[in-house]
Amino acid sequence: MKLFLDTANLQQIQKAKDWGILDGVTTNPSLIAKEGVRDFHGHIRRICEIVRGPVSAEVIALDTEGMLKEARELSKIHEDVVVKIPVTPAGIQAVGVLSKENIHTNVTLVFSAGQALLAMKAGATYISPFLGRVDDIGWESMDLLEDLLTIIDAYGFDAEIIAASVRHAKHVVEAARMGCHIATIPFQVLEALFHHPQTDNGIDRFIKDWNQLQDRLRKEG
Ligand code: G3P
Predict the structure, then answer these.
(1) Rounded to whole angstroms, how far apart are CA atoms 163 and 169?
(2) Model-level pTM?
(3) Do 164 and 129 touch, CB atoms closer than 8 A?
(4) Is 116 in the pocket of ligand 1 (CB under 6 A)?
(5) In 3-state terms, what secondary structure has residue 199?
(6) 219 an active-site residue?
(7) How many angstroms separate the alpha carbon of residue 49 from the centre of ligand 1?
Protein backbone atom coordinates (compact mmCIF):
# COMPACT_ATOMS: atom_id res chain seq x y z
CA MET A 1 0.00 0.00 0.00
CA LYS A 2 1.30 3.44 -0.86
CA LEU A 3 1.13 6.12 1.82
CA PHE A 4 0.53 9.74 0.84
CA LEU A 5 0.44 12.71 3.20
CA ASP A 6 -2.67 14.87 3.02
CA THR A 7 -1.09 18.22 3.77
CA ALA A 8 0.52 21.29 2.24
CA ASN A 9 2.87 21.75 5.22
CA LEU A 10 6.49 21.53 4.00
CA GLN A 11 7.94 20.57 7.43
CA GLN A 12 5.51 17.67 7.78
CA ILE A 13 6.26 16.51 4.24
CA GLN A 14 10.04 16.71 4.84
CA LYS A 15 9.70 14.74 8.09
CA ALA A 16 7.68 11.94 6.47
CA LYS A 17 10.16 11.89 3.58
CA ASP A 18 13.04 11.53 6.07
CA TRP A 19 11.23 8.59 7.69
CA GLY A 20 11.41 6.89 4.29
CA ILE A 21 7.75 5.95 4.04
CA LEU A 22 6.36 8.77 1.90
CA ASP A 23 5.06 7.86 -1.57
CA GLY A 24 3.16 11.03 -2.45
CA VAL A 25 1.20 14.06 -1.26
CA THR A 26 -2.34 15.31 -1.77
CA THR A 27 -3.42 18.90 -1.24
CA ASN A 28 -6.72 20.71 -1.60
CA PRO A 29 -7.70 24.41 -1.49
CA SER A 30 -8.46 24.21 2.26
CA LEU A 31 -5.01 22.74 3.04
CA ILE A 32 -3.32 25.39 0.86
CA ALA A 33 -5.31 28.11 2.68
CA LYS A 34 -4.34 26.63 6.08
CA GLU A 35 -0.65 27.19 5.23
CA GLY A 36 -1.34 30.76 4.04
CA VAL A 37 0.30 29.98 0.68
CA ARG A 38 0.66 33.05 -1.60
CA ASP A 39 2.51 31.44 -4.52
CA PHE A 40 0.43 28.32 -5.24
CA HIS A 41 2.50 27.04 -8.17
CA GLY A 42 5.79 27.72 -6.37
CA HIS A 43 4.55 25.87 -3.29
CA ILE A 44 3.46 22.83 -5.33
CA ARG A 45 6.89 22.84 -7.01
CA ARG A 46 8.62 22.81 -3.60
CA ILE A 47 6.43 19.89 -2.48
CA CYS A 48 7.30 17.96 -5.67
CA GLU A 49 11.03 18.56 -5.09
CA ILE A 50 10.77 17.03 -1.61
CA VAL A 51 8.44 14.13 -2.38
CA ARG A 52 9.67 12.68 -5.69
CA GLY A 53 6.28 11.02 -6.15
CA PRO A 54 2.74 12.02 -7.18
CA VAL A 55 1.58 15.39 -5.79
CA SER A 56 -2.07 16.32 -6.20
CA ALA A 57 -2.97 19.98 -6.78
CA GLU A 58 -6.62 20.92 -7.18
CA VAL A 59 -8.32 23.10 -9.80
CA ILE A 60 -10.61 25.93 -8.69
CA ALA A 61 -12.64 26.42 -11.89
CA LEU A 62 -16.01 24.71 -12.04
CA ASP A 63 -16.43 24.63 -15.83
CA THR A 64 -14.64 22.21 -18.16
CA GLU A 65 -12.70 24.83 -20.14
CA GLY A 66 -11.54 26.55 -16.95
CA MET A 67 -10.52 23.22 -15.42
CA LEU A 68 -8.57 22.25 -18.54
CA LYS A 69 -6.74 25.59 -18.59
CA GLU A 70 -5.75 25.26 -14.90
CA ALA A 71 -4.89 21.58 -15.29
CA ARG A 72 -2.53 22.20 -18.21
CA GLU A 73 -0.81 24.99 -16.28
CA LEU A 74 -0.51 22.85 -13.13
CA SER A 75 0.90 19.92 -15.11
CA LYS A 76 3.72 22.16 -16.37
CA ILE A 77 4.95 22.84 -12.81
CA HIS A 78 6.57 19.41 -12.42
CA GLU A 79 6.27 15.97 -13.99
CA ASP A 80 4.89 14.57 -10.69
CA VAL A 81 1.89 16.90 -10.53
CA VAL A 82 -1.48 15.16 -10.51
CA VAL A 83 -4.45 17.40 -11.23
CA LYS A 84 -7.24 17.04 -8.69
CA ILE A 85 -10.70 17.51 -10.15
CA PRO A 86 -14.11 17.28 -8.43
CA VAL A 87 -16.52 14.59 -9.62
CA THR A 88 -19.02 16.81 -11.46
CA PRO A 89 -20.18 16.48 -15.09
CA ALA A 90 -17.74 19.28 -16.03
CA GLY A 91 -14.99 17.56 -14.04
CA ILE A 92 -15.55 14.13 -15.59
CA GLN A 93 -15.51 15.70 -19.07
CA ALA A 94 -12.20 17.41 -18.23
CA VAL A 95 -10.72 14.14 -16.91
CA GLY A 96 -11.57 12.42 -20.21
CA VAL A 97 -9.73 15.11 -22.20
CA LEU A 98 -6.75 15.19 -19.82
CA SER A 99 -6.34 11.41 -19.84
CA LYS A 100 -5.90 11.58 -23.65
CA GLU A 101 -3.20 14.24 -23.10
CA ASN A 102 -1.45 11.94 -20.59
CA ILE A 103 -2.06 14.39 -17.74
CA HIS A 104 -2.61 12.48 -14.52
CA THR A 105 -5.81 13.19 -12.60
CA ASN A 106 -7.20 12.56 -9.13
CA VAL A 107 -11.00 12.64 -9.07
CA THR A 108 -11.97 14.02 -5.70
CA LEU A 109 -15.00 14.47 -3.42
CA VAL A 110 -16.23 10.96 -4.26
CA PHE A 111 -19.06 9.74 -2.01
CA SER A 112 -20.68 6.99 -4.08
CA ALA A 113 -19.74 4.00 -6.23
CA GLY A 114 -21.69 5.54 -9.13
CA GLN A 115 -19.49 8.63 -9.06
CA ALA A 116 -16.38 6.46 -8.93
CA LEU A 117 -17.57 4.38 -11.90
CA LEU A 118 -17.89 7.56 -14.00
CA ALA A 119 -14.36 8.60 -12.98
CA MET A 120 -12.99 5.15 -13.91
CA LYS A 121 -14.66 5.30 -17.32
CA ALA A 122 -13.30 8.80 -17.94
CA GLY A 123 -9.76 7.49 -17.44
CA ALA A 124 -8.95 8.91 -14.00
CA THR A 125 -5.50 8.00 -12.70
CA TYR A 126 -6.63 8.18 -9.07
CA ILE A 127 -10.04 8.29 -7.36
CA SER A 128 -10.47 9.68 -3.85
CA PRO A 129 -13.43 8.48 -1.77
CA PHE A 130 -13.78 10.72 1.32
CA LEU A 131 -14.02 8.12 4.09
CA GLY A 132 -14.24 10.45 7.10
CA ARG A 133 -16.88 12.63 5.51
CA VAL A 134 -18.89 9.51 4.51
CA ASP A 135 -18.84 8.40 8.15
CA ASP A 136 -19.81 11.96 9.20
CA ILE A 137 -23.15 11.62 7.39
CA GLY A 138 -23.84 8.24 9.00
CA TRP A 139 -22.94 6.07 6.00
CA GLU A 140 -20.44 3.22 6.07
CA SER A 141 -17.16 4.31 4.49
CA MET A 142 -15.74 0.80 4.32
CA ASP A 143 -18.75 -0.44 2.29
CA LEU A 144 -18.03 2.34 -0.21
CA LEU A 145 -14.36 1.41 -0.39
CA GLU A 146 -15.21 -2.27 -0.90
CA ASP A 147 -17.61 -1.38 -3.76
CA LEU A 148 -14.93 0.71 -5.50
CA LEU A 149 -12.29 -2.01 -5.24
CA THR A 150 -14.74 -4.65 -6.48
CA ILE A 151 -15.69 -2.58 -9.53
CA ILE A 152 -12.04 -1.84 -10.39
CA ASP A 153 -11.18 -5.55 -10.19
CA ALA A 154 -14.27 -6.66 -12.12
CA TYR A 155 -13.39 -4.56 -15.18
CA GLY A 156 -9.64 -4.08 -14.86
CA PHE A 157 -9.84 -0.28 -14.78
CA ASP A 158 -6.42 1.34 -14.44
CA ALA A 159 -7.42 3.82 -11.72
CA GLU A 160 -5.96 3.52 -8.24
CA ILE A 161 -8.13 4.22 -5.23
CA ILE A 162 -6.89 6.73 -2.66
CA ALA A 163 -8.57 6.33 0.74
CA ALA A 164 -8.99 10.04 1.58
CA SER A 165 -10.49 12.12 4.38
CA VAL A 166 -8.78 9.69 6.74
CA ARG A 167 -9.42 10.55 10.38
CA HIS A 168 -7.69 7.80 12.36
CA ALA A 169 -5.33 4.83 12.16
CA LYS A 170 -8.25 2.37 11.90
CA HIS A 171 -9.29 3.89 8.56
CA VAL A 172 -5.76 3.22 7.25
CA VAL A 173 -5.58 -0.34 8.55
CA GLU A 174 -9.04 -1.28 7.30
CA ALA A 175 -8.25 0.20 3.88
CA ALA A 176 -4.99 -1.77 3.82
CA ARG A 177 -6.81 -4.98 4.80
CA MET A 178 -9.08 -4.51 1.78
CA GLY A 179 -6.11 -4.05 -0.53
CA CYS A 180 -6.80 -0.37 -1.20
CA HIS A 181 -3.97 0.97 -3.37
CA ILE A 182 -3.21 4.17 -1.44
CA ALA A 183 -4.17 6.01 1.74
CA THR A 184 -3.63 9.74 2.01
CA ILE A 185 -3.39 10.70 5.62
CA PRO A 186 -2.99 13.79 7.79
CA PHE A 187 0.38 14.04 9.58
CA GLN A 188 -1.18 13.40 13.02
CA VAL A 189 -2.62 10.10 11.76
CA LEU A 190 0.78 9.13 10.35
CA GLU A 191 2.31 9.82 13.78
CA ALA A 192 -0.49 7.83 15.43
CA LEU A 193 0.41 4.80 13.28
CA PHE A 194 3.79 4.67 15.05
CA HIS A 195 2.48 4.74 18.58
CA HIS A 196 1.41 2.04 20.97
CA PRO A 197 1.63 2.38 24.78
CA GLN A 198 3.20 -1.07 25.05
CA THR A 199 5.98 -0.03 22.66
CA ASP A 200 6.76 2.98 24.87
CA ASN A 201 6.59 0.81 28.02
CA GLY A 202 8.80 -1.80 26.38
CA ILE A 203 11.46 0.76 25.44
CA ASP A 204 11.43 2.22 29.00
CA ARG A 205 11.85 -1.25 30.46
CA PHE A 206 14.72 -2.25 28.11
CA ILE A 207 16.63 0.99 28.82
CA LYS A 208 16.08 0.65 32.59
CA ASP A 209 17.31 -2.97 32.62
CA TRP A 210 20.32 -2.07 30.45
CA ASN A 211 21.29 0.84 32.72
CA GLN A 212 20.92 -1.31 35.85
CA LEU A 213 23.27 -3.89 34.32
CA GLN A 214 25.81 -1.17 33.47
CA ASP A 215 25.63 0.17 37.08
CA ARG A 216 26.14 -3.34 38.49
CA LEU A 217 29.08 -4.04 36.18
CA ARG A 218 30.70 -0.70 37.12
CA LYS A 219 30.34 -1.50 40.85
CA GLU A 220 31.75 -5.02 40.36
CA GLY A 221 34.77 -3.34 38.66
O1 G3P B 1 -7.97 14.19 0.95
C2 G3P B 1 -9.18 14.78 1.28
C3 G3P B 1 -9.09 15.45 2.58
O4 G3P B 1 -8.22 16.53 2.52
C5 G3P B 1 -10.37 15.84 3.20
O6 G3P B 1 -10.21 15.52 4.53
O7 G3P B 1 -10.60 15.63 6.93
O8 G3P B 1 -11.21 17.58 5.47
O9 G3P B 1 -12.54 15.46 5.42
P10 G3P B 1 -11.20 16.08 5.64
Answers:
(1) 12
(2) 0.95
(3) yes
(4) no
(5) helix
(6) no
(7) 23
Q: In sequence order, what E strands does 33-80 have?
A: 55-58
Decide: 128 and 162 in contact? Cβ < 8 Å: yes
CA distance to 9, 34, 84, per residue, from 70 (Å): 22, 21, 10
Q: Is the CB of 56 under 6 A from ligand 1?
A: no
List CB contacts of 105: < 8 A, sequence separation 6 or more. 71, 82, 83, 84, 85, 94, 95, 98, 99, 123, 124, 125, 126
CB neighbours of residue 121 within 10 Å: 14
User: What does the pLDDT look like over 134-145, one tens digit per residue?
Assistant: 999 999 999 999
Helix H or strand E encompassing 100: helix 89-100
Please tell me if the CB atom of residue 29 comes closer than 6 angstroms to any atom of ligand 1.
no
- Separation of alpha carbons 41 and 213, rounded Å: 57
Instruction: Tell me the backbone φ, ψ of residue 26, rounded to 5 degrees.
Output: -120, 140
What confidence tens digit (pLDDT) does each residue in 19-56 have? Answer: 999 999 999 999 999 999 999 999 999 999 999 999 99
